[in-house]
Automatic annotation (TrEMBL):
UniProt family annotation: Belongs to the bacterial solute-binding protein 8 family.
Signal in keyword set: yes
Entry keyword set: Signal, Transport
Bilayer-crossing regions: none
Domain of life: Bacteria
Presence of the UniProt keyword Transmembrane in the record: no
Fe/B12 periplasmic-binding domain boundaries: 75-345
Subcellular location: Cell envelope
Protein name from the UniProt record: ABC transporter substrate-binding protein
Major subcellular location class: other
Length: 345
């Protein structure tokens, strides 16, 4: 996965974005949810009444491998943030995850229980800690069967579900498929279907709000950036990026045409490269990075201040903590942000 190293963002407070942010509390889990009573779960899980399936499970993971479980997994370890978020949305509290602090910082769509075991970094998980957590399934993100982490995990004897983080040819479809796969693995298919239906409703509402806003142009670019050797580096999200595709879902038109990677749809440019998008609306992940705030540097640059979107008040930071590579709940946050920002412009 292409992992952003700088993710802090400044807040844009609106009623609509607040409505789609998933709150969390400590409560018993009703109905079919499989998190243990007293564990911290999202408010939507507190009201969840969908059933949890029972019986043996046979899956084909995203590498085409067959994974067989005697019963739906309930003690799951997750080695990537999107999958961790998805499990929590399914009302399955992971027994262990990689990079607890990072997840809590960058993904606000769901909240981990405080006692969740930390497996170290996503790139080099602690195998001893993993075995100690005694999961009945490990979910890992890889790019191929040759990934060394996959081999290490298989050597533990714990069933391993291999997933792929993204697919620029259909980013929203891939996000949905991954969430559905995790629902099948945990017996939470009914919950997965309910959540995806909620996402569809959020998209429909946002599409109507964007249409009513009467934008001067539907063209847009989402980007993030950082300071690289004293210069501003810009990472544009192309049409194959998840946040670009979500913008398209609500009626916007992603216009980045530069080269992007085939998995995440992300490119690279500098401030001058932003001239290529003309009068497009701009949305971006702002930072408060102590190593250098690229937004502050942008605002000092005449190329940036001369862009039509900047001059006309159509360049907007996104709210804090929306993970740009997340699952349905992060997508709901992003869709709500697009709609709220545009409606308030």
């Amino acid at each position: 996965m292409i992992r952003p190293s700088r993710r802090a963002v400044v807040a844009t407070t609106t009623a609509l974005t607040a409505a789609v942010l998933t709150g969390c509390g400590t409560t018993e889990v009703p109905g079919g949810a499989v998190a243990a009573p007293g564990e911290e779960i999202s408010d939507s899980c507190a009201a969840d009444a969908t059933e949890t399936a029972t019986g043996p499970v046979t899956l084909t993971d995203q590498l085409g491998r067959t994974v067989e479980l005697a019963a739906p997994a309930s003690r799951v370890a997750s080695l990537e943030w999107q999958q961790t978020e998805d499990l929590l949305t399914l009302c399955v509290a992971p027994v262990a995850v990689a990079d607890v602090e990072g997840f809590a910082t960058w993904d606000t769509a769901e909240k981990l229980p405080e006692d969740t075991a930390d497996l170290g970094t996503r790139q080099e998980p602690d195998m001893d800690a993993l075995v100690t957590a005694n999961p009945d399934l490990v979910v890992v993100e890889v790019t191929s069967e040759d990934d060394p982490v996959l081999g290490q995990l298989e050597a533990t004897g714990i069933p391993v579900l291999a997933t792929i983080g993204a697919d620029a040819s259909d980013p929203v479809g891939h996000m949905r498929a991954l969430f559905t796969l995790l629902g099948e693995a945990t017996g939470r298919t009914a919950r997965a279907e309910a959540v995806l239906a909620e996402l569809d409703a959020t998209i429909a509402d946002a599409r109507a709000a964007v249409a009513d806003a009467g934008l001067p142009t539907a063209d847009f670019l989402y980007f993030d950036g950082w300071i690289d050797g004293g210069n501003v580096a810009i990472r544009p999200f192309g049409p194959g990026a998840l946040f670009s595709a979500l913008g398209a879902e609500v009626g916007l038109n992603p216009v980045w045409t530069g080269e992007t990677d085939p998995q995440y749809g992300l490119g690279q440019t500098d401030i001058e490269g932003l001239l290529a998008v003309g009068d497009a609306n701009l949305f971006y992940t702002a930072t408060e990075d102590p190593a250098g705030d690229y937004v502050t540097e942008l605002e000092k640059n005449s190329l940036w201040t001369g862009l039509p979107a900047v001059q006309e008040g159509r360049a907007h930071p996104f709210p804090t903590g929306i993970w740009t590579f997340g699952g349905p709940r992060s997508c709901e946050q992003a869709i709500g942000a697009y709609a709220a920002i545009i409606a308030g412009s």
